[in-house]
Write a structure and sequence with these properties.
28 strands; 535 residues; seven-stranded mixed sheet; alpha+beta; four-stranded antiparallel sheet; elongated; 19% helix; 11 helices
């Protein structure tokens, strides 16, 4: 008899890929606004089978005909593929709205990524129909594997006065030198109003953005005076390197020079002095750093056995198991579990159910081991979870309500005990499979907020056709989850409805639900200031 268990998710044959980032600047953009310059934004699309899909967009800049966009576009460069790109520059009044809502197309240009890579930079005209509407330059560079955060604080004194009726409104722009000698902006500070002696807020910048891991790469720091009604004025600039900043005795003083003013003034010294007040380089460790140094992924399963699933003996039930077929619960278990078990050394998984009456007395339980052995809820591997689920199902009476707080609390207890023993040895991933909206939403939110301080993530897969709209509250992609207990320390929940992947391969579901786990693990370690063992 053929096995009902499919092979584990696979991404197919491996291919050569390397991470690159695209930096974009434009020149002489056509004016789309009657009384001012355009407010440009650049959208980058990748073509596949005749269809263009957006892969990223820059920030929008106000009143700028020669934009040097700070936001880089990361993507995979595949040597063996023809990767055709389209760059479209739009004039937008509100970048938060869809481009179709008030955006005006300035122009577009196309290029193959291989062309850009071969030349390091690529310059082309922007066109809108038959009309030339400016120029665009795309610079590509392979991303360094070095990952480091730079925490910096700057101030300045004695800046030149640029406003006729008042003091300057200064801000800083940090640019890195490109391989062709040009510079690309990578960071801009806030504007400090009406002062010649500004103190800017501390900020964090990745060294990969500033110099791509090259301590000797030239960095240009320019100080501008912000102007609401016209182009911003350059006060002065200086050049340095990350190596110089890293080795400097603080505070470090840098003269800001303005070449135009220096050419007109005999005894010119500077246009102000820039001061580096604080500097700290913080190494960023990756998910692989932690896993390869001994951090295990502890996989825990929670399955909804509430009455809303329907009678398991009927084909209409979400728990119905047809001969040699897996129901949605089993498919989700296999898709996600077969990935997680690769990172679990002993492959012993605690497997729980909730919301049913259980033997021997058919008493209701809001959490119970699938093995009914409270002393040992573990099963061997993902196939062991499947077998325990199939053996458990006919012995329980589906009941209710759909309360998730108890099982989240149980995993939180396990994570807390592991954290006390060793903060970097264990990270828990709870896969919670449920057919409906939770009836204890507030209690679940509270325990999730409390659990955000622990080494754990929660994956919720919605099974069936219920309206899962409220479940997106727990998956707080737009901000940290809030409850009556306060604000979560970090986002630890990922929710997806299984129906969105019912016609896809198991790999697609696994990718969607597990995509955030590596970053969540890294964020936990950073919050706890934990380095990988031996590093």
């Amino acid at each position: 008899m053929a096995s009902m268990y499919p092979p584990g998710p696979s991404g197919g044959q491996s291919e050569f890929k390397t991470k690159v980032e695209l930096r974009i600047k434009c020149k002489d953009l056509a004016k789309m606004d009657i009384l001012s310059k355009s407010d440009p934004i650049c959208v980058v699309e990748l073509e596949s089978a005749g269809t263009y899909t957006e892969i990223g967009r820059t920030e929008a800049l106000k009143n700028e005909s020669n934009p040097d966009f700070i936001t880089a576009i990361p993507m995979d460069y595949c040597f063996e593929e023809l990767q055709h790109l389209r760059f479209t520059v739009w004039d937008v009044d509100d970048a938060s709205k869809p481009l179709s809502d008030g955006g005006q197309k300035i122009g577009s240009a196309e290029a193959n990524l291989g062309q850009v890579v071969a030349g390091k930079s690529y310059t082309q005209e922007l066109n809108h129909g038959e009309r030339k509407t400016g120029g665009i330059t795309v610079i590509v560079e392979e991303l360094s594997q070095i990952s480091e955060e730079l925490h910096m604080t700057f101030s300045a004194t004695h800046l030149d006065k640029k406003d006729f009726f008042g003091k300057s409104d200064p801000y800083l722009v940090f640019s890195r030198q490109n391989p062709d000698g040009s510079f690309s902006a990578v960071h801009k500070t806030e504007v400090v109003k009406i002062t010649l002696d500004p103190d800017w807020q501390p900020f964090i910048l990745q060294s990969r953005s500033l110099c791509n891991g090259d301590d000797n790469r030239l960095i240009e720091i320019s100080c501008y005076d912000w102007d609401q009604d016209s182009a911003d004025d350059l006060i002065g600039s200086c050049t340095t390197t990350l190596g110089a900043l890293r080795s400097a005795s603080l505070p470090l003083h840098l003269d800001l020079k303005n070449s135009k003013k220096a050419a007109k003034k005999k005894n010119y010294t500077n246009s102000g002095v820039l001061h580096l007040r604080a500097f700290e380089a913080v190494r960023l460790y990756s998910f692989l750093d932690y896993v390869s140094s001994g951090c295990g992924i502890n996989f825990v399963v929670g399955i909804d056995f509430t009455g809303s699933n329907g009678n398991p003996s009927q084909p209409t039930s979400l728990h119905y198991i047809a001969p040699n077929q897996m129901n949605q619960y089993m498919q989700a278990l296999w898709s996600v579990g077969s990935i997680c078990e690769q990172y679990d050394a002993d492959k012993l998984f605690p497997a729980f159910g909730f919301g049913a009456k259980i033997p021997p007395n058919q008493q209701f339980s809001d959490i119970f081991p699938l093995t009914f052995n409270y002393e040992n809820p573990y099963v061997q591997g993902i196939q062991g979870v499947h077998q325990a689920y199939q053996q458990c199902l006919p012995q329980v009476a589906l009941w209710g309500p759909t309360n998730a707080a108890p099982i989240v609390a149980r995993v939180a207890e396990m994570a807390r005990e592991a954290q006390k023993a060793s903060p970097i040895k264990h990270y828990f991933v709870l896969l919670l499979l449920t057919d409906g909206v939770l009836t204890d939403m507030e209690a679940t939110k509270e325990i999730i907020v409390e659990s955000s301080k622990l080494p754990m993530s929660i994956i919720i897969v919605g099974v069936g056709s219920a309206d899962f709209h409220d479940m997106n509250v727990l998956d707080s992609d737009d901000g940290k989850l809030r409850s009556r207990m306060g604000l979560a320390k970090r986002d630890i929940v990922q929710f997806v409805p299984f129906r969105d992947f019912a016609q896809s391969s198991p790999a697609h579901l696994a990718k969607a639900v597990l995509a955030e786990v590596p970053q969540q693990l890294v964020e936990y370690m950073r919050c706890e200031k934990q380095k990988p063992a031996g590093m």
